[in-house]
Amino acid sequence: MRDKELNKQWIRDNKVMYSINLMRSTDMDIIDYINTTKENGGTVQGAIKEAIRFFLAHKDIKDIQ
Q1: What is the pLDDT of residue 62?
Q2: Residues of the chain with pLDDT > 90: what percent?
Q3: 16 lies in which domain range?
């Protein structure tokens, strides 16, 4: 029980949220996004998967075109 609480606290303290609009981004924006993710301990594969999931989840919203 204590381990779960510590894990949740660690995630709250250390999780970083990134979002990127793939349709409005230039190549350099995407490269900067991936580099920032790597610097913060993430993986390139994870960053790309997260960006694609976000895009697919919000592709019908008019703000993201």
Answers
A1: 59
A2: 0
A3: 2-57
The pLDDT score that the predictor gives to residue 65 is 47
Amino acid at 47: A
CB atoms within 10 A of CB 54: 16
User: Is the residue at 21 inside a domain?
Assistant: yes
Can you read off the two tokens belonging to residue 28? 């350099």
Number of independent structural domains in the chain: 1
CB atoms within 10 A of CB 22: 15
3-state secondary structure 4-40: HHHHHHHHHHHCCCCCCCCCCCCHHHHHHHHHHHHHC
pLDDT digits (tens, 9 = 90+) for 37-54: 778 877 777 777 877 787
